[in-house]
């Protein structure tokens, strides 16, 4: 088996894959089409499965040090009544770690710092990815090219490599929602680490950071492509009657800090995550709605599982078959669960359906809710040592 790889995409999944491959002795080049490190994005929650993957990659300690544990909070109604309380200590006892909140830009930086200088090529878009024979893959970018034993397609939900490998697949579809998010300009007086509030066809949530600032997000059921001329003013109009600290979070935000994008997903499961010596990872393989907070965690699981398979098998083809067999059932099951969570949460708009959901949540014992969470969080990574 050779030991050179090209990772297409310098996001969380791509960087994690590069780190994992280097830990098993591979030479790795990461191609990122963006020309500068804009570090866009707001916040992210990392569950125990994602943290364990980061531990195996050797960066878990640094990520934990930059994160804030989510020990308090839960789900509320727009007028502030609690539907479900979160017991972060019980979750930590059950799976060994609480959910952690971190800036996405900080996580990106920590992953980049784990790679040697020169391994991440910015402004380098993979124009062609083709099997070249003799067990190699040819990757053309700009006026340059690379020959590799493996190509990892971590090029996101709109993956061009996925489209090339599976031209009959319908690709990503709109979930029916759009999300707006931002990080506050200054610290906000928050009494909880994490909250979700569900209204009729709308959701508002926040994640608290170590420095007292917070990421907030608003999910709205809207047609694809809907945009607001002044997003922050629109959100103040929609959420001004919702409970504290929602108005305060919006007031602590600069208008230009608000990001908006449609929530898309790969609703039709892929028949395989690998073809020849090309393998799909992260959103390119299983882009899911954010309702379980598992998108990044599943990409991190992918990265460790891929590296472990390549370290254990005698051929790239055997390793990719093993990776596909291990990752496809689990990641697609998580994607289905995330879709269902959205349908039972923010996407509900009929008053009777909302009332029935709220009643069911109030009556669900906390131990039952914890068991439901454990289905996704209780994952142990294969060893890369």
Mean pLDDT metric: 93
Output the CATH class name of the domain at 4-71 and 99-173 and 266-345: Alpha Beta
Helical content stands at 25-40%
General shape: globular
Provide the CATH topology of the domain at 4-71 and 99-173 and 266-345. Answer: FAD/NAD(P)-binding domain
Our measurement of the CA-to-CA distance between the termini, rounded to an integer number of angstroms, reads 18 Å
| Helix/strand structural class | alpha/beta
For the record, the CATH architecture of the domain at 4-71 and 99-173 and 266-345 stands as 3-Layer(bba) Sandwich
The strand count comes to 19
Pick out the low-confidence regions. Answer: none
Q: Which assembly state applies to the chains in this document?
A: single chain
* Count of alpha and pi helical runs: 13
Provide tags for this entry.
385 residues; 26% strand; 19 strands; six-stranded mixed sheet; FAD/NAD(P)-binding domain; alpha/beta; single chain; seven-stranded mixed sheet; globular; 13 helices
